[in-house]
Structure formats: structure tokens, C-alpha cells
UniProtKB/TrEMBL annotation, chain A:
PROSITE patterns membership: HPT
Superkingdom as given in the UniProt entry: Bacteria
Protein name according to UniProt: Chemotaxis protein CheA
Catalyzed chemical reaction(s): ATP + protein L-histidine = ADP + protein N-phospho-L-histidine
Keyword match Kinase: yes
Function recorded in the entry: Involved in the transmission of sensory signals from the chemoreceptors to the flagellar motors. CheA is autophosphorylated; it can transfer its phosphate group to either CheB or CheY.
UniProtKB/TrEMBL annotation, chain B:
Name of the protein: Two-component system chemotaxis response regulator CheY
Pfam families to which the protein is assigned, alphabetical: Response_reg
Matching SMART domains: REC
GO biological-process terms attached to the record: phosphorelay signal transduction system
Organism name: Povalibacter uvarum
């Protein structure tokens, strides 16, 4: 700021300068008028002196006359007359020029003597004085002795002074002999005395009048001075008033500006959607803050609140500590504000507000901190708070839907990579497992042990699904199964259990069911796609492509050589389905056998005869029975050799129509048959029956145990068995269709499952 | 300790940069993507201990620092470097998994933070901001 840049003080400086100038002007004027005053006084004094001068001259002339009569010396008296006459003359000359002399002899101009009236009076006086001077002239020119020579004047007869001098004069009144010159002097003196007596009054009057005039003028000056003083005072008052007005106006203007600014600030703070406040070094909230804070923090009172007390009830302790550390960093000089924004722990922080209705509401708040500097040093932190709950929720939804889409794409790609049989096999197994879970969930239970048994049973099913999904790379299924497992682990860990604890599992189960349905649907769409392609390419080379897809879906991707032969095959749909199930069962048997180091040969008959409406059920049932047969029935090659059987076990699946009534599905193997003792043991172990009950069971009842939920005789839980779900499911499926299950077995020789199904029309009627 | 430290500036007037990260790939990435003429890499270090040794020999003006490193982590290293040269500018370059750890490093005297993974543009902007911030405070 430059020294001449007065800014807002310009007005004051100008006013003061003006006041000073006016003050000096008045002083000068005052001084000038006061000088005139002194001049007038001197003039009056001078004129009053002058008034006495004619009398003095007259007295001097009379002295000469008296001396002459007394015959005394006249020289000094003449000299005195000259002196007084000269003084009077000078006074006239001065007055003619309007000048007077003061006591010190300096000449002073008196303005009052310069006006016409004074001049006229002076002229009159001068005229009289001129005549006067003419009368004086012969006297003043006189020199020598006025007396006759024979009678010399007894010059100094009276050393005793006046009395002595007076005495001889009285003694010789007429005895003085004057010379002719003396007589002329005497005559001149007589004339002078006569004139003086006549003119003295006039001269004196002129002086008096002039003095009066000067006094008059002096009075005028005094009035002027008073006027100037009053005027100056008034001017000063006016200036003071102006100053006062100016300041008052400026003050008012500033007040208006600042009050308007305050109002604008208040408007902004009341309206802005962000929560705004300042934090000082003690982390106290400033008094000015935006109204939005009330809504964001659900409170009204922020007085004397510190930042940590604002947060401590709504964020976890760890977050609070990190946040306070972060704020402390911003108060330090070292960190670069812009380069630490990414680690702001309160950027999108999850907060919990108590809900008056119970529980709490979760919100997401976004805090932003900005350093406020004044005069180069950090004075405050400006904190901006936004409720970003909607944004966070939206972005989460978006992310979830993206993930879902991605997952579906992954799933599709995964499905394309999985061997179709494995996939259908898995889907069937998983479906069975989940139905099993459902039936376990529905089982009535009241005791703690029963609840625990339920959990264990469900856990085995879900775990198996998870394992298989993982093996096939079906991540989305695996994740859901894992989440289910987690819930189960949570239940296991609880000290006590009740029926309602199982409710969340129903939701989880539903989720898994839905997801598997999705996978199945996707698979269905792929099949549709295939059909669409096949339909479009019915002629020409297109058939080859369609056939390729057929092959792939049939799982014969390594049998490209047979491809060309296929399009010629006749009832394509029928054959496809039959071939599909047969092939599925063959592959399943081979896969399970190989994983259990067994050898098996499967023979299927009549599967092409399965009515459309039973295809699904028959597939599920046969898959279950074939797998069970391979795992439990067929022995290992060593065992078979010892039992004097061929190394390769035999497995037969037969579907036949039984008259009008219905169909029969037989699955049998030449394995070790059902081991009744082992079944009893397991049933007791699983808590399905008590040892006492076991002892009372006959073979038929014992065999029936394998259809109970949660039963499995496999020692280890594997993907293929050990979950105890299979036979239970078979029972459920058959029951759903209104059929029956029969079971025959001979220890060490065979097992035979005979299932009777009503004809579809009858089933519907039933 | 700073008896044998050569604090002379580079004759070309550039500022000295040290890169400290246990990942060879990151070190090379920073070196390769450095697009600031005012900076010249004078040393790279694979852990905090090596960084402190190199810094004692020749203190850098600017340091990029990883947090998780063997031997001596970034937090301890920052503490040491600031003791040797209080006006050193340190940019933490680390993953954003734990904000509290990053804040710990900043409490020890680091000046800024860049989140891994980063683009060359983000690196340049962060280093420029680091240099600018130092200019403002002085």
C-alpha cells in the first residue's frame, strides 16, 4: 500500500486539510485586522498629540513676548518655538500622505486618513497652518539681540533662577529699549498671537475630528474583526458538521455493506446443501456453520462441540483415531494438502445414527478438509460434509449389477467349457442335494441334538455341492454354496439353537436353487441356440455346422469322425434324448468307477421308451441309483476276484412298459448286495434309530432304512456318495409321481431296485 | 552422521531424486515414466536400509517411498531420512489397503501420498504438486 494511497481514509484526510487551511486563513485575517487596530490606536494617539501642538506653539510665542517685555534673552525661546512649529509642520506633511509616527518614530499608514473627508479637513488645516507659518516665519528668522545697544540686556543677573529673573522684569516694566529689529519682532509676535488665538481652536478641532474619524474607522475594523471571527467560527462549525455528516454517512454505508454481507453469508449457510464449518487448532467447531449440518448429523446443538465428540458416537473407534491423526497432519506444515486427500479416512465413511424406533440407520458421509490461511499462516480447517448415502448405494447397486452381469458371462463361458455330461450331472446332483437339504429343513425337530444333526446333514450336502462346483469351475455356484456353509458354521458355533435359527438358511437355499435354475436356463438357451442354428442350416454345408453343435451338446466332441454319418440318423429328437441319458449314465458310471478304482460295465435298455413327462424323473432316479450301485454295490476288482467274480462289475438299467397300468424301471448290479448289519450300525450312528430298535428290525425294515433322510453308508464324504441323500431323493421322486420302490438284495451277489411308475395319464388323475 | 554426506547440488541445477521400492518393476516404472525435467534420479533402493545408506552418502532432495519393504519399512525409513535432511520431500507410493499405515508414514514426516497402481500422469502430477507445495510453504 503506497503512502499516498489513502483508500477509505481519503475523505477524512481531505476534510482535515480543508479545516487546517480555513483555520490558517482566519488566523491570517485576524492578524491583519489586529495590525490595523494597532495602527488606528497609534493614529488616534498621534492626532491627540497633534491637537495640543498649536497650544504649545502659542505658548512658546507667548514666552518670547514675555521675554521681550522683560528684556530677557529670546534665543532659546525662539528655538523652542521653531522646534514645536517644525514638529507640527512634519505632522501635517505626514498626515497629508496618510502617515503618522508612533512613539518609536516609525511611520505607520492609517487608512482612515486617506478618505475624502479627512483629506478635505487636512486641506483646511493645511491652509490655516500655511497662514500660521507665514506669521511664524519673521519670528523664526529672527537672530541676534532685539534690544538697543546702550541698554544691553543684563544677561545673567539672576543666578537664582526664575524668581530672580522675574524680579528684574517686574522692576523694569517699561524701561526696556528695543532695537528696530526688536520692535519688528514684537509686532510679528503680536500678529502671531492674535492669529494663533484665532486659529488655535480651528486647528485643534481639525485634529479632534481626524482623531474621531480614525476612531470611527477603528470601530469599523473591530466590527470586521468580530465578523471575521464569527465567520471563522461558523465556518469551523460547518466544517465540523460536514465532517460529522461525512463520517456518519460512511459509517452507515459500511454498516449497511457489512450487514448485507452478513445477511448474504447467513443466506448461503442456511441454503447450502453441504455441511460447512471451521475447525480451529483445538479442533473446536466454529460458530458459523451451515444449516445442512443439522440434517446431516441429526442434531441442533453444535455449540462448543469438538470434532471428535461430533464423530465418536457415529463411527468406530479405529476410524475416529485415524481421522484425528489425519486432521492433525493437516495442521502440521509438512504434508501437502492435495497429496493426502486420497488417504482421508473420512472420505466416504460409514456412520450409524441411532434410530428412535430402535436399531440404527446407516449413512455414508463424505468429509473434505481444506486449509484456511490468513496472513500466510494456517488459521482454520474448512470442513465440508456431504451425505453421499444415495451415491454410495447407487454405485454399489451398479457394481453389483456389473458383477452379476460379469458373473453370468463367466458362468456362460464356464458352461461352454464344461463337459456337457459333467454339467448336467452336476446340476442333477446339486438339485438332489438341495432337495435333500430342503427335506432336512422340513423335518420336525425339538431337541438340541436333533438341531445339531440337521445342521450336520445340511452341511454335508452343501459342502458337496460347493466342492463339485469348484471342480467344474462354476464360481458363482461355489460362492453361494460357500456363503451357505458360512451360515451353517455360524449356527454350529452357537451354544443353543432354536427352530427360528434355521429360517435364514431357507433364504440361502432359495438363492442356491434360483441360481442353479439360472444355470439350467442358460444351458437351455444354448440348446435353443443350437436348434435355431440347426434349423437355419438344414441344407448344404450348414448341416455340418449344426451337426457339430449337436455333437458338442451330445458330449461327443472327440468323435468328429462320426460326424458326417449323424445327419442321416432317423428319429433325431427321440434318439438324441435316449442317447443323451444313456451316455450320461455310461459316463457317470465310468467316472465314478474310475474315481473309486473300480471297473464297471453298464447296459441300458428301453430308455427310449420313457414317456416325455417322466424323462426328467427317470434321469434323476437312474443317475442316483447308478451312482449308488457303483459306489456301494460293485466291489473293487480285487474283492471281486476273491469272490470269484469277473473284475468288471455288471450294472443294468432297464425301462419297460407293464401293460396299461404303468412302467417298471429296474436297476441292478452284481455287487456285494445290501449289508444289513452295516446299515443298522450306520442308522444308529446317524441317530436315525436306537440300538434297541436296531435289534428288533427285520431285513425288510432294515433295507427301508436306506431311504431315510440323512442315511449314508459310505465312510468318507466324497463327491459321489457319503452324503446320504441319494436314496431319500429316489423315494421322494417316486412318491411325487405316485409310484412305488421295491428292493431286493442277496448278500455278496446282487442288489435290485425295482421301481413301478403309473402311466402318465393315471398319474395326473391320481 | 552427516560428516561424509555430500550435499552439493547437481551441476546442471536439477533436484536429486531417490526411488525406494522393493519391487524392481515399480522402481523401473518410476524411473522410466519420470517426465519432470527438474528431477534427476541419483539412486534407487530396494529397501529402507539401503535407502538410508544411499541417503547418507548423498542426500536426495526428493524421495519416492514404498511402505511395505523388507529389512526396514517405509515408515522407519522416512523417520531416518527426515533426521538426516529435514527439508527432504518424500512422496509415499503405496497401495491404499490401510489408510492408517499411510497416515503413520506422513506423521513421521512424509509430505504426500500416491496410490498404487498409478499411471505415469498421476506420478508426474503428484511429483509436481510435491515440488509446488514446497515452493509455497517457503
Amino acid at each position: 500500500m503506497g503512502i499516498l494511497d489513502l483508500g477509505r481514509y481519503k475523505g477524512i484526510v481531505w476534510a482535515i486539510t480543508g479545516f487546517l487551511v480555513a483555520f490558517i486563513a482566519i488566523l491570517a485575517l485576524n492578524h491583519g485586522i489586529a495590525g490595523l487596530f494597532a495602527d488606528d490606536v497609534a493614529g488616534v494617539k498621534f492626532l491627540s498629540q497633534m491637537r495640543t501642538q498649536p497650544a504649545e506653539i502659542q505658548a512658546n510665542a507667548r514666552t518670547i513676548t514675555e521675554r521681550l517685555q522683560a528684556g530677557e534673552k529670546v534665543d532659546d525661546a525662539i528655538e523652542a518655538l521653531r522646534s514645536s512649529a517644525t514638529a507640527y509642520d512634519h505632522a501635517f506633511i505626514g498626515l497629508a500622505g496618510g502617515m503618522v509616527s508612533d512613539n518609536s518614530g516609525a511611520t505607520i499608514g492609517v487608512s482612515a486618513l486617506n478618505d475624502a473627508e479627512a483629506k478635505a479637513m487636512l486641506a483646511d488645516g493645511e491652509k490655516v497652518w500655511k497662514e500660521y507659518k507665514a506669521k511664524l516665519d519673521p519670528i523664526l528668522r529672527f537672530s541676534g539681540s532685539p534690544y538697543a545697544a546702550e541698554a544691553p540686556a543684563p544677561a545673567a543677573p539672576a543666578p537664582t533662577g526664575k524668581n530672580a529673573a522675574a524680579a528684574p522684569a517686574a522692576e523694569k516694566p517699561a524701561g526696556v529699549q528695543l532695537s528696530p529689529r526688536g520692535r519688528r519682532l514684537q509686532t510679528a509676535l503680536v500678529e502671531l498671537n492674535t492669529f494663533a488665538a484665532a486659529s488655535q481652536a480651528q486647528l485643534s478641532q481639525i485634529s479632534t475630528k481626524l482623531a474621531g474619524q480614525v476612531e470611527e474607522s477603528s470601530k469599523g475594523n473591530a466590527a470586521l474583526l468580530r465578523g471575521v471571527q464569527i465567520g471563522g467560527l461558523l465556518a469551523a462549525l460547518a466544517l465540523l458538521g460536514a465532517l460529522f455528516f461525512y463520517f456518519a454517512r460512511n459509517l452507515r454505508k459500511e454498516e449497511m455493506v457489512s450487514s448485507r454481507a452478513r445477511k448474504e453469508t447467513a443466506d448461503i449457510l442456511r441454503t447450502v446443501n453441504e455441511g460447512l464449518f471451521l475447525l480451529d487448532k483445538d479442533l473446536k467447531l466454529g460458530s458459523e456453520r451451515s444449516m445442512a449440518l443439522n440434517t446431516i448429523f441429526r442434531k441442533e446443538d453444535f455449540m462448543n462441540l469438538t470434532f471428535d465428540s461430533l464423530l465418536k458416537d457415529i463411527v468406530p473407534e479405529k476410524t475416529l483415531k485415524t481421522a484425528m491423526d489425519y486432521v492433525a497432519l493437516l495442521w502440521g506444515e509438512r504434508v501437502n494438502e492435495k497429496l493426502v486427500k486420497t488417504i482421508n479416512p473420512l472420505n466416504e465413511v460409514e456412520v450409524h445414527f441411532d434410530n428412535p424406533a430402535g436399531g440404527f440407520d446407516t449413512h455414508y458421509l463424505e468429509f473434505d478438509f481444506n486449509r484456511v490461511k490468513s496472513d500466510g499462516s494456517l488459521s482454520h480447517l474448512l470442513v465440508t460434509v456431504n451425505d453421499v448415502t444415495k451415491r454410495v448405494m447407487l454405485s454399489r447397486e451398479l457394481q453389483e449389477s456389473q458383477e452379476k452381469a460379469q458373473a453370468q458371462l463367466d458362468l456362460l463361458l464356464r458352461i461352454l467349457h464344461v463337459e456337457p455330461d459333467s454339467l448336467t450331472g452336476f446340476l442333477t446332483d446339486a438339485d438332489v442335494s438341495l432337495k435333500m437339504v430342503n427335506s432336512i429343513l422340513k423335518e420336525p425337530a425339538r431337541e438340541e441334538t436333533a438341531f445339531r444333526a440337521k445342521i450336520d446333514g445340511i452341511y454335508r450336502q452343501v459342502h458337496a455341492v460347493k466342492g463339485e462346483a469348484a471342480a467344474l469351475g462354476l464360481k458363482t455356484v461355489e460362492q453361494r454354496a460357500h456363503a451357505f456353509e458360512e451360515s451353517l458354521s455360524d449356527l454350529k458355533g452357537r451354544p443353543t439353537l432354536s427352530g427360528s435359527d434355521f429360517l435364514p438358511l431357507v433364504v440361502k437355499l432359495d438363492d442356491l436353487f434360483n441360481h442353479l435354475a439360472q444355470v439350467r436356463e442358460m444351458l437351455g438357451r444354448l440348446v435353443d441356440l443350437h436348434h435355431a442354428i440347426a434349423a437355419r442350416r438344414t441344407s448344404g454345408g450348414g448341416q455340418v455346422e449344426a451337426a457339430k453343435v449337436d455333437q458338442w451338446l451330445a458330449g461327443k466332441h472327440d468323435q468328429t469322425m462320426q460326424m458326417k454319418a449323424l445327419p442321416t440318423q432317423q428319429p433325431q429328437q427321440e434318439a438324441e434324448a435316449a442317447v443323451g441319458l444313456e451316455r450320461t449314465l455310461e459316463d457317470l458310471a465310468a467316472r465314478v468307477a474310475s474315481s473309486h478304482s473300480k471297473q464297471v460295465s453298464l447296459k441300458c435298455t428301453g430308455l427310449t421308451e420313457v414317456p416325455e413327462s417322466y424323462k426328467r424323473a427317470v434321469k434323476d432316479i437312474t443317475i442316483q441309483l447308478v451312482r449308488n450301485a457303483v459306489v456301494h454295490g460293485i466291489e473293487t476288482p480285487d474283492q471281486r476276484v476273491k469272490a470269484q467274480k469277473s473284475e468288471t462289475g455288471f450294472l443294468g438299467v432297464e425301462f419297460t412298459q407293464r401293460g396299461e397300468e404303468g412302467f417298471e424301471l429296474v436297476v441292478q448290479d452284481d455287487g456285494r448286495g445290501l449289508q444289513l448289519d452295516r446299515i443298522k450300525e450306520v442308522a444308529v450312528e446317524r441317530g436315525l434309530i436306537t440300538p434297541a430298535q436296531a435289534a428288533l428290525l427285520d431285513p425288510r425294515q432294515t433295507m427301508a432304512l436306506i431311504f431315510r433322510p440323512g442315511f449314508s453308508t459310505a465312510d468318507r464324504v466324497t463327491t459321489d456318495a457319503g452324503r446320504g441323500a441319494g436314496m431319500d431323493l429316489v423315494r421322494i421322486l417316486v412318491a411325487e409321481l405316485g409310484g412305488r420302490v421295491g428292493l431286493a438284495s442277496a448278500g455278496g451277489r446282487f442288489s435290485k431296485f425295482k421301481i413301478w411308475l403309473p402311466s402318465p395319464s393315471r398319474a395326473v388323475a391320481a | 552422521m552427516a560428516a561424509n554426506a555430500k550435499a552439493e547440488p547437481l551441476t546442471n541445477g536439477k533436484l536429486k531424486l531417490m526411488i525406494c521400492d522393493d519391487s524392481n518393476i515399480i522402481r523401473r516404472k518410476i524411473e522410466r515414466e519420470l517426465k519432470i525435467d527438474r528431477l534427476q534420479v541419483i539412486a534407487t533402493a530396494a529397501n529402507g536400509k539401503l535407502a538410508v545408506e544411499a541417503f547418507r552418502k548423498e542426500p536426495a532432495d526428493v524421495v519416492t517411498m514404498d511402505i511395505t519393504m523388507p529389512e526396514m519399512d517405509g515408515i522407519e525409513c522416512v523417520e531416518n531420512l527426515v533426521k538426516i535432511k529435514p527439508d527432504v520431500l518424500i512422496l509415499i507410493i503405496s497401495a491404499l489397503s490401510d489408510k492408517a499405515t499411510a497416515i503413520e508414514a506422513l506423521k513421521k514426516g512424509a509430505n504426500g501420498f500416491l496410490c498404487k497402481p498409478f499411471t505415469d500422469r498421476q506420478l508426474t502430477e503428484a511429483l509436481e504438486e510435491l515440488l509446488r507445495g514446497a515452493g509455497n510453504d517457503d
